[in-house]
Predict the structure.
Amino acid sequence: MNTDIFNFSPGTKTTGELDVPGIDWKLPYTAVSGCRPGKTVLVTAGIHNAEYVGIRAAMRLAQSLSPDEITGQVVILPLVNRSGFEHRTMSAVYEDGKNLNRLFPGDPDGTASDRLSWFISQTLFPGADYYVDLHCGDGFEKLSEYVYCQGAAEPEVCADSERMAAATDMPYTVRSTIGSGGAFNHAGKMGVPAVLIERGSQGLWTEEEAQKSEEDVRRILKTLGILQGKAPEPRPHTILTHAHYIDAGQSGCWYPERHPGDIVEKGELLGTLRDYFGSVLETHEAQARAVILFQACSLSTPEGTPLIAYAEWENRERK
Ligand SMILES: [Zn+2]
């Protein structure tokens, strides 16, 4: 496996663009290599290209980190789905319309999205000791901020992932039970502890939100001993699990009843899917007491796309 791209000279900051086999555009990156040897942290954003808070946070981090304050190295790719960004799709890869975060580990003989996933999983992950993936609600999503930790990897990987999540300034950590498809999930399968940060939504962004996600990455880097400075006290964070992801069974109009971040009781109405004449196609109720993580904010919800996601407390008795 080719991990040469992580061999940067100590004490340097390098910017450039990586060639991806079979794709005719390049991936921008910044590598900050400390004077002292140590672990390598990979940071990506823009796997979903309309999730601007994560992208802007990665750009800020790339501009602000200095080799003097680093032990080991931090490699930042702020715009993984560059073609989607430049054609302003709503997070699909422009060439093939696919959702990159469903394809990992990818396929070297597939379409552009498959090849890009393959490059990341085969060339970048093997050289990374830790991984942070920055996301945000998509243009059609409204979400409450939270962080995902890995729950379907080896126990020591999951433990490191949870420690990284605990370093962030987030109210909730959602423990994922999925071990494939997404970059963050697949990294776990390959033995790389990772977290996925969700902040901001609806295709909007502010410097304040981006600064918060940048700060979360800095807190993780301090906790891992990569970035100088005192590691933050792990904040008492609430772990959510048993996540429910509800997709539209058919195309229609989605009328949510509640908001992301709301706590709902078992049996409470979450929303209805209706046709263009107002007739109810689907009714969705909470299956358990839970926190709403995100929901569609677009009136249009095509078949198979997310309507709402909510998660229960790890200890179901605890609030
Ligand atoms: Zn995303």
Q: What stands out?
A: The mean pLDDT is 95. The pocket of zinc ion is lined by residues 48, 51, 135 (CB under 6 Å). The two ends are 46 Å apart (CA to CA).
